[in-house]
């Protein structure tokens, strides 16, 4: 008889989980779903609140949004790893790109999930063994979305300077402005 992932959580001595996200409805839904899976959840919706929670009682697990109104969730991952090196943390964001994924993993995040992610995906990422191979996504990013993410990354690296970004991407400035004005493709 094999042990289910839910049973594995219940067998853990420390089931503390910090969820940091500024999307309040998502935060509440995910927190309730993770509580049903046996976690003791602490909710935070700002980097400052996340840092206070980590300093007060470093959790065994964390789900951290990348971009928040008052800063970057990577700061919370960094602090968590200082306070509790064995903690398992994942980055969850709607602004996924390779550079931030690499940074998050270097700082100790065990996975990087793009929004919208459901509670099952979050749970699976938190409980995955370090040598588990990731399951291919059901709905991977489209080529248009990958292009858009790359443009956004270069734009951020150029300190949101449209002319410099256009120069580096070998693109006309007006074309870049039109792309930046549009919503992200699916």
Automatic annotation (TrEMBL):
UniProt keyword NAD present: no
Residues covered by the Response regulatory domain: 16-130
GO cellular component: cytosol; protein-DNA complex
Keyword DNA-binding recorded: yes
Alphabetized CDD domains for the sequence: REC_RegA-like
4-aspartylphosphate modified-residue sites: 65
Gene Ontology annotations of biological process type: regulation of DNA-templated transcription
Gene3D superfamilies given in the database record: 3.40.50.2300, Homeodomain-like
Pfam families: Response_reg
InterPro entries recorded: ActR_PrrA_rreg, CheY-like_superfamily, Sig_transdc_resp-reg_receiver, WalR-like
UniProt keywords, alphabetically: DNA-binding, Phosphoprotein, Transcription, Transcription regulation, Two-component regulatory system
Entry's Gene Ontology molecular function annotations: phosphorelay response regulator activity; transcription cis-regulatory region binding
Designated name of the protein: ActR/PrrA/RegA family redox response regulator transcription factor
The species this protein was found in: Microbaculum marinisediminis
């Amino acid at each position: 008889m094999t042990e289910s992932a839910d049973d594995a959580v219940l067998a853990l001595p420390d089931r503390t989980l910090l969820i940091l996200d500024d999307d309040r409805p998502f935060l509440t839904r995910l927190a309730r779903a993770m509580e049903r899976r046996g976690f003791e959840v602490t909710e935070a919706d700002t980097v400052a609140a996340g840092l206070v929670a980590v300093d007060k009682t470093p959790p065994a697990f964390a789900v951290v949004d990348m971009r928040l109104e008052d800063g970057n969730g990577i700061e919370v991952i960094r602090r968590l790893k200082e306070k509790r090196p064995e903690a398992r943390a994942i980055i969850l964001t709607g602004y996924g790109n390779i550079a931030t994924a690499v940074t998050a993993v270097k700082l100790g995040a065990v996975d990087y999930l793009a929004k919208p992610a459901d509670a099952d995906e979050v749970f699976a990422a938190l409980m995955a063994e370090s040598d588990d191979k990731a399951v291919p996504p059901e709905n991977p990013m489209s080529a248009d979305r990958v292009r858009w993410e790359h443009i956004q990354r270069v734009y951020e690296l150029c300190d949101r300077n449209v002319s410099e970004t256009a120069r580096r991407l070998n693109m006309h400035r007006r074309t870049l402005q039109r792309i930046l004005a549009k919503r992200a493709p699916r």
